[in-house]
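User: Reviewer 2 asked us to show a designed sequence for the structure in our supplementary figure. I'm pasting the structure tokens here. Could you produce the per-position amino acids so we can include them in the response letter?
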């Protein structure tokens, strides 16, 4: 009798697998019973998971009120709706407050080194392209020390989801300014105010060749829909999530995240829908002469007459304009901004390896003996 042993990434999954194995072994069918044999071979339908199935027994440890709690819950609510299995899922993080994330997901997980989560994720996906890979990172981890790794992952188009928690500060190291901190930000490393020009994560992603770019924020009820859209995309899906750092950069996004500011501050984009905000009284149109976006008034709901643009997720030029809109003069563009798939990196690698190995017989000894070699006595 042959036995297949599967090692899973968490205790609950491991117990479930062993229980299933022993249940099958204990009910071995009679050699003369076709009906029993068919029952044995039948695939038992897998029950849909719940958010609880994606929670670990680890104490969640962020500062009270941190936006990371809301993002974690949104991800745990999303996973059951994707129809994926915990044992086929991997969360990979770098260094930072957000990077504790893998400890709290009942899946495989890697807490790696600063800025290198994309490199580890690439290795995981190449080793097993069937795995569902999620990268958890922050504005410092992804855009400072890890900027080059993030860029190369996006241009290669590895099939994974990249969740960049943007709180515009280094929270883990006690509040220094980060690559996305606004000009004038006062911190221990910029006591008189930052004079740096901040990086724009979505503009960076588009410039790096990303084929999916989206935005959301920690407590948004729409975040789950954004995560589901990212997962549907075949390729590197980049999501910037505005996250409130309650200690070192409190309420920095309240001008558009607070309920009282939502109507004027948020532009939620939907494929095939007009770009309307402020309860439909304002919209985004194209200034043809300037080749730039502009805000227009919509009278009596007639957005066509106002020239409001209809969102097309495959329009890369407009996507660039949307992520560059200066907040205040414009609302914050949220939702799926760009989505235009192309073949993935790992599929090209698998295809190339299959082509190169066609008709060849693996022979490790022959490979070792090939070329120059020495015998040491």
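Assistant: Here is a per-position design you can include in the supplement:
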């Amino acid at each position: 009798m042959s036995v297949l042993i599967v090692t899973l990434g968490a205790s609950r999954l491991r117990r479930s697998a062993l229980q299933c194995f022993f249940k099958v072994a204990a009910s071995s069918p009679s050699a003369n019973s076709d009906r029993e044999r068919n029952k044995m071979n039948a695939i038992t339908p897998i029950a849909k998971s719940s958010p609880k199935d994606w929670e670990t027994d680890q104490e969640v440890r962020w500062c009270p009120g941190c936006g990371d709690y809301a993002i974690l819950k949104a991800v745990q609510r999303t996973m059951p709706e994707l129809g994926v299995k915990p044992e086929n899922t991997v969360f990979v993080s770098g260094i930072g407050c957000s990077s504790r994330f893998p400890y709290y997901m009942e899946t495989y997980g890697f807490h790696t080194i600063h800025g290198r989560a994309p490199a580890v994720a690439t290795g995981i996906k190449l080793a097993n392209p069937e795995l569902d890979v999620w990268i958890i990172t922050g504005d410092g981890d992804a855009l400072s020390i890890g900027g080059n790794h993030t860029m190369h992952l996006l241009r290669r188009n590895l099939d994974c989801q990249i969740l960049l928690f943007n709180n515009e500060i280094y929270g883990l190291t006690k509040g220094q300014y980060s690559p996305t901190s606004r000009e004038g930000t006062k911190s221990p490393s910029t006591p008189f105010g930052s004079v740096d020009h901040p990086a724009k994560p979505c503009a960076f992603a588009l410039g790096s060749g990303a084929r999916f770019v989206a935005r959301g924020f920690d407590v948004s009820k729409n975040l789950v829909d954004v995560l589901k859209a990212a997962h549907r995309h075949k390729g590197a899906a980049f999501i910037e999530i505005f996250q409130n750092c309650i200690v070192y950069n409190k309420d920095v996004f309240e001008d558009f995240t607070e309920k009282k500011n939502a109507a004027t501050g948020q532009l939620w984009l939907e494929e095939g829908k007009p770009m309307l905000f402020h309860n439909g009284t304002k919209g985004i149109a194209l200034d043809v002469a300037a080749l730039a976006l502009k805000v227009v008034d919509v009278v009596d709901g007639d957005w066509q007459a106002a020239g409001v643009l209809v969102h097309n997720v495959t329009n890369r030029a407009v996507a660039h304009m949307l992520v560059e809109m200066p907040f205040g003069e414009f609302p914050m563009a949220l939702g799926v901004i760009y989505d235009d798939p192309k073949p993935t990196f790992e599929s090209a690698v698998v295809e190339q390896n299959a082509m190169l190995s066609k008709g060849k017989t693996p022979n490790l000894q022959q490979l070792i003996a090939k070329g120059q070699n020495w015998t040491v006595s």
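For the response letter, you might also mention the following. Residues 90 and 157 are 18 Å apart (CA to CA). The longest strand covers residues 332-339.
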